[in-house]
Amino acid sequence: MKIICNQKLLANKVGTVQKGVSNKTTIPILKGILIETIDNKIKLIGNDLELGIETFLDGEIIEEGSIVIDSKLFGDIIRKLPDSFVEITTDTENNVYIKCENSEFKIKGHSSEEYPKLLDVDENRFYEISQNLFKNMIKQTVFAISQDETKPILMGELLEIENNNISLVAIDGYRLAIRSDKIENFIGNSKVIIPGKALNEVNKILSEEGNFKIAFTDKHCLFLIKDTKIITRLLEGEFINYRQLIPREYNLRVQVNTKKLLNSIERASLLAKEGKNNLVKFSIRDDNMIITSNSEIGNVYEEVPILLEGEDLDIAFNSRYFIEALKIIDSEEIYLEFTTNVSPCILKPVDEIEYIYLLLPVRISANA
User: What dihedral angle (degrees, nearest 10) is formed by the CA atoms of 291, 339, 248, 327?
Assistant: First the structure.
């Protein structure tokens, strides 16, 4: 194989497929990137058998061929080369020669014959979705995925498509995040569980403009983002029936400025972090929400103006869980809906965005 391509473009594409390479694998060839020529294009693939990423770049193909090169070493070399053209050549013993201006490298590669192929997915069964919309859907839910490896099903998100409506749902046992919206090219109902790792990588590749395509098989999900293909294995099992967790009624509702509430809780959390569970207490009275936190090193008092509909309430939460939700809400004002001080709180934007964040309170003693 002999190819010539632009260093900056190659570095960018290598960085993309490296997201599909696992350093923890015990299979040596999976630590590499597959480079091959196909249809006058240069194709790169990273694949750890759970997540596979394929992308293409333009270049001059002098001699066709393929090779597997150690991902980390190859990526480090390409990123350090000058902004010029890179010539990559291989020989019959799988040696790889890399030349760029006055730099020359010779590294050992591997035959591509044992490299696992990516799954083919029927591209006629694609949903087409706005990149910007799906990027926001991931951002507003993925932080609520469980990190508990004993509950692998909760380390993914439920993606539901029903009657022109698409939803992403994440739950970790303490909180629930749901982001929904409409899609135009509805081709049937779907319900799958996508690993959080895959969604994080998809989020990095999605841009702010244009559409991308998504399709499913029984065990895999395919994202097609311009010239990049991402295939991930789906999580198997039954996702929690999240709809039954959402209260249908509330006894009081607070309308509050998102930024003011976030800033107050962040300040209160400076002391809450010194406690055992990041505890902050809300005392909701008339037109104010009083936020307090007490620890061995001191206490803090914050007041936030609100519009209150309903009874007074004292309730406490893990400050980190509240902050993480407030940070990803773009709406200027939000509603907080409460039933009792031991029932979940529901957070919703005041505007028309279809977002629900449910958070369980922390029990507090009567004299706390």
Answer: 10
**pLDDT at res. 276:** 64
What Cα–Cα distance (Å) separates residue 219 from each residue in 192, 201, 234, 256?
9, 19, 5, 43
The answer for residues whose C-beta is within 8 angstroms of residue 276's C-beta and 6 or more apart is none
Find the Cα–Cα–Cα–Cα dihedral 219, 224, 228, 229, rounded to 10°: 10
Which residues have C-beta within 8 Å of that of residue 102, sequence separation ≥ 6? none
**Cα distance between residue 167 and residue 187, in whole Å:** 15
Whether 366 shows a pLDDT value over 60: the answer reads: no
Q: Residue 153 gets which letter from DSSP?
A: G
Q: Which domains does the chain have, with CATH numbers?
A: 2-114 (3.10.150.10), 123-243 (3.10.150.10), 247-359 (3.10.150.10)
Query: Which pair of structure tokens corresponds to residue 254?
Result: 């607070």
pLDDT-derived band at 334, boundaries 50, 70, 90:
very high
The rounded distance, in Å, linking the Cα atoms of 162 and 182 is 10
Phi first, then psi, for residue 212 (nearest 5°) are -135, 175
Structure-token match 């070399």, residue found:
77
264 vs 117, which has greater pLDDT?
Answer: 264
Q: Distance (Å, rounded) from C-alpha 48 to C-alpha 177?
A: 29
Read off φ and ψ for residue 266, nearest 5 degrees: -65, -40
How far is the C-alpha of 262 from the C-alpha of 267, rounded, in Å? 9
Confidence of residue 106 (pLDDT cuts 50, 70, 90): very high
Spatial distance between the Cα atoms of 40 and 60, rounded to a whole number of angstroms: 8
